[in-house]
Q: What sequence folds into this?
């Protein structure tokens, strides 16, 4: 999920290099695809609708993607990588600080990114589920990457004596699964009204598991 770009690239001798133009086209198509998938759902979305939303020809769409499934998988990969990078940067900013403070800050970053890009969030958390086996395989891989990130951070915190080690390798997957379902439910039902209002319950979920691992009441 990156800042959306507007406007048309210069043409002629002032035009940017080909790879820059292609990257800009791809960004515009990602943004358009997020809006179309969120508005119409994956099943009813078409390559033509995405191209039209982006102000491009269908031929340009097919220069970048084989079909709409290829498009949603590429958008999913790009956006989830950006979300995970934002979470890692936030976590790194805390260094050896309090584990609870870092957990809350990382959760806040995750939810703020979803709030800032609601169309992409719906695509990543809701529409991707109906996009076919390749999309599901990619989603599972990304969820595993998030879980491994949580487990690695916890392992380092435990090594430094800042937190108890999670009880099992499944704990980090439980955290990811619960958080993703909470966020997906909010997107589908708009309950609570603002996805960022999930921060307290997600915080209790994560910190509760850490307290449990330490043998103390949550």
A:
């Amino acid at each position: 999920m990156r800042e959306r770009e507007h406007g048309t690239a210069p043409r002629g001798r002032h035009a940017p290099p080909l790879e820059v133009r292609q990257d800009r086209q791809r960004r515009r198509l990602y943004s358009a695809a997020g809006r179309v998938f969120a508005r119409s759902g994956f099943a009813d979305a078409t390559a033509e609708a995405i191209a039209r939303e982006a102000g491009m020809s269908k031929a340009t769409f097919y220069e970048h993607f084989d079909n709409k499934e290829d498009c949603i998988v590429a958008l999913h990969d790009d956006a989830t990588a950006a979300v995970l990078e934002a979470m890692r940067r936030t976590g790194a900013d805390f260094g050896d600080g309090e584990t609870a403070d870092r957990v809350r800050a990382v959760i806040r970053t995750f939810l703020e990114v979803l709030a800032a890009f609601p169309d992409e969030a719906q695509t990543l958390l809701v529409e991707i589920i109906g996009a076919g086996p390749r999309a599901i395989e990619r989603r599972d891989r990304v969820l595993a990457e998030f879980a491994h990130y949580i487990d690695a951070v916890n392992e380092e915190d435990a090594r430094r004596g800042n937190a108890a080690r999670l009880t099992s390798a499944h704990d980090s997957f439980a955290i990811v699964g619960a958080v993703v379902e909470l966020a997906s439910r909010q997107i589908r039902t708009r309950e609570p009204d603002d996805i960022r209002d999930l921060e307290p319950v997600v915080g209790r979920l994560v910190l509760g598991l850490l307290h449990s691992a330490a043998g103390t009441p949550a």
About this structure: The chain has nine helices and no strands. The two ends are 34 Å apart (CA to CA). Residues 38 and 123 are 6 Å apart (CA to CA). Residues 133-160 form the longest helix (28 residues).
